[in-house]
Each structure stands twice: as structure tokens, then as C-alpha cells.
Amino acid sequence: MHFAVVKKSIIPVGDISEIIPDEEADTAVLEEPEHLTWFHHGKRWKTKFRLVIGIIHTNYLEYVKREKNGRLLAFLLKYLNSWVVSIYCHKVIRLSAATQDYPRSIICNVHGVNPKFLEVGKKIFEQQQSRNKAFTKGAYYIGKMVWSKGYGELLIRDHQKELAGLEIDLYGNGEDSDQVKEAANKLK
Which protein family is named in the record (predicted)? Predict the structure, then answer.
């Protein structure tokens, strides 16, 4: 793996499937198959394995839209992603409807989130719908501090009046840490 500074992402180098003997290559689960296969130059996963399941975690189209010429890049990336995923995966599971849509994909919670956390989310949603205060102890956001992870939206610049009193604690670091902290402090 190689960290590509420009893409702020890990890019695979080499072909990991070479170390798996053909007689043992039954099923492969590719986490973020679009990401893993942008630069894949080894044997086709669907040729090597009897079944390849791709798990889609991230909506890369939204990241790309934030860059210069983002709309055009997102348009092209949508087709590149669909193309490589269809070449390399038999089945596609999207963890959320917020991810890019893929032909023949399903949306399913296979990421191991404890159902108790999902129940908390449902309860908060119901409280918001009934206009009750949903976050009584504030909110926590843990993640790499780069603008492309949604910190602009997280800081809720356009909704300051509606959410007065909501405290959000940000944990993490990254290339944009100083800027994110400065923006958060300005918004109090």
C-alpha cells in the first residue's frame, strides 16, 4: 500500500492475490472495491476467486465534487467506479444509501455496528421529529481532520440559530486540523 498525498488516500501497489494459492481462492471480500481497483494491475479478482463481494463504504463522488472542476470529475468517476466494480465484483453491498449507486447492488448493514448504536440513532431521530431536544449531552465526531471528510457540513455554518446550544467535540488530527479548529472556535 502507498499513501497518495494528493488523493489523501491509501492506494494499493502490487497484487495481493498472488500470495493466495489458486486452490484456496474461493471467496474474496473487497472493502471499497472501487478504491482498491482504480490502479489494480493483477489478475482479475472474478477470475481468481469463485465469488467476489464488494463492500462500498465511501461516496467518493462527494469528495471529488469539492475539488476544482469537481462536477466534471465526479461525472467521470461515477462511470470509472461502476466500470471497475462490475469488472471485479460478482456482488456489491452498499453500507448506506448515501454511497454511490451501483447496478445490481444492495444496501445492507454488514459492517458490524452494534444494534444498540442503531437504536440510539432511531431514538434521536424520533426525538427530532417530535421537536424534543435530541442531543442532551452534545455530540462527538471522531475522524481524520481534513475538510473533505465533511467538517464544513459538520460545523453547520448555515444552521447556527437552529442549533444554538448544541456542543460538538471534535477528536482527531490531520492536514486541516488547525483550520478546522479555528473555524470551530469562530462559530463558538
Answer: Belongs to the glycosyltransferase group 1 family. Glycosyltransferase 4 subfamily.
DSSP string over 116-152 = HHHHHHHHHHHHHHTT--S-TT-EEEES---GGGTHH
- Show the DSSP H helices in the chain as ranges: 33-37, 45-48, 60-65, 70-88, 115-129, 151-154, 177-187
Longest CA–CA span in the chain (Å) reads: 62
Query: Dihedral angle at the C-alpha atoms of 41, 45, 49, 52, nearest 10 degrees?
Result: 160
What pLDDT score was predicted for residue 113?
Answer: 65
Q: Check if the beta carbon of residue 60 is closer than 8 Å to that of residue 32.
A: no
107 strand-pairing partners: 94
Band of the pLDDT at 139, cuts 50, 70, 90? low
Residue 47's φ and ψ, nearest 5 degrees, are: -85, -40
- What distance in Å separates the CA atoms of residue 9 and residue 101, rounded to the nearest whole number? 21
